[in-house]
């Protein structure tokens, strides 16, 4: 990773290597926050689409299930999209799980825990790295262990996901209940628990919302307020959130006309009328001011 002056820094990055059947390297992909965000989103998409299929019956259901399975496998094994599927591959290989649906459920939960992990969680985990060294048959003084510890100290979320995934006991994905039991055991081994993570995450989310709600920009204040409300809906219920109950702004398709897409037109969605163009204008003005300031400092 490069530092602010453009030079290579000593900041560690966790990579997942993808090999072919002959064990030749095809590509390697970092376990980045993008990977975690995409894993959470993809897991939710799979969950929603699987639920929709329960409404079908007979041959139609069989055909649609087969089409969905083929589509998911094509996506997951696309070498150009490995940053989006890295979390799936890592957990599936560590647990020797071939079912995409089972892997997806656990990846979604774990990625959301890591994405919302408070800063104190990384420091605590970095001080309890002994279990990883023992499981991997490494000395705590080895370079690999030192780099993982350093990544955690720098609040690297990919490193925390990697650590938890590696330390999960075998057969952790057998059932949803088994996964949560295994997760608690793993978190305890690094000085954490789901309850501790929730308390810390709530405190940080509340502080962040308080700061952002004082912004001079209406778009930032609005997103901060409703983002915090979304956070409170996601964390209580086993981190499996009701998509239709979240406040979601519109999005723009990447087509020639930049067509606007509304996720949820219900009146229960207060962000359905969020003005994307106005928000863009506000943020661009801030960006230009920052760029002008940076140029003046040269």
Give a short summary of the structure:
The protein is 60% helix and 5% strand. The chain has twelve helices and four strands. The strands form two sheets. Strands 1-2 form a two-stranded antiparallel ribbon.
Topology at a glance:
Layout: E1 15-19, E2 25-30, H1 33-53, H2 58-76, H3 82-95, H4 100-115, H5 119-126, H6 130-136, H7 143-153, H8 157-167, H9 176-189, H10 194-212, H11 218-234, E3 251-252, E4 260-261, H12 276-297
Antiparallel strand pairs: 1-2, 3-4
Note down, in words, how this protein is organized.
The chain has helices at residues 33-53, 58-76, 82-95, 100-115, 119-126, 130-136, 143-153, 157-167, 176-189, 194-212, 218-234, 276-297; strands at residues 15-19, 25-30, 251-252, 260-261. By secondary structure, the chain is mainly alpha-helical. It has 2 domains: 15-191, no CATH class; 199-297, no CATH class. A two-stranded antiparallel ribbon has the order 1-2. Helix 1 packs antiparallel against helix 2, helix 1 (33-53) packs across helix 4 and helix 3 packs parallel to helix 8. The protein is globular.
Percentage of residues in helical conformation: 55-70%
Structural class: mainly alpha
Low-confidence stretches: none
Strand content: 5-15%
Radius of gyration: 21 Å
- Largest sheet entry: 2 strands, antiparallel
Task: Give the averaged pLDDT, no decimals.
Answer: 89
């Amino acid at each position: 990773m490069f530092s602010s002056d453009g030079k290579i820094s000593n900041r560690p990055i966790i990579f997942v290597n993808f090999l072919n059947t002959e064990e030749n390297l095809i590509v390697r992909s970092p376990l980045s926050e993008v990977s975690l965000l995409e894993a959470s989103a993809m897991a939710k998409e799979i969950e929603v689409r699987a639920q929709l299929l329960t409404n079908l019956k007979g041959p139609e259901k069989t055909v649609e299930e087969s089409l969905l399975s083929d589509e998911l496998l094509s996506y997951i094994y696309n070498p150009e999209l490995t940053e989006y599927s890295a979390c799936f591959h890592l957990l599936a290989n560590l647990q020797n799980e071939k079912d995409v649906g089972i892997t997806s459920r656990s990846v979604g939960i774990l990625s959301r825990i890591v994405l919302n992990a408070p800063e104190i969680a990384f420091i605590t985990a970095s001080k309890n790295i002994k279990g990883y060294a023992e499981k991997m048959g490494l000395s705590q003084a080895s370079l690999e262990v030192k780099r993982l510890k350093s990544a955690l100290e720098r609040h690297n979320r990919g490193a925390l996901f990697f650590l938890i995934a590696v330390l999960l006991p075998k057969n952790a994905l057998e059932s949803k209940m088994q996964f949560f039991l295994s997760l608690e055991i793993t978190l305890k081994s690094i000085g954490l628990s789901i309850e501790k993570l929730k308390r810390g995450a709530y405190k940080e989310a509340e502080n962040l919302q308080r700061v952002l709600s004082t912004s001079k920009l209406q778009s930032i204040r609005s997103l901060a307020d409703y983002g915090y409300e979304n956070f409170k809906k996601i964390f209580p219920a086993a981190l499996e959130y009701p998509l239709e109950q979240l406040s979601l702004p519109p999005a723009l398709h990447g087509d020639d006309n930049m067509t606007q897409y509304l996720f949820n037109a219900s009146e229960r969605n207060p962000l359905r009328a969020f003005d994307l163009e106005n928000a863009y204008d506000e943020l661009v003005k801030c960006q230009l001011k920052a760029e002008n300031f940076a140029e003046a400092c040269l």
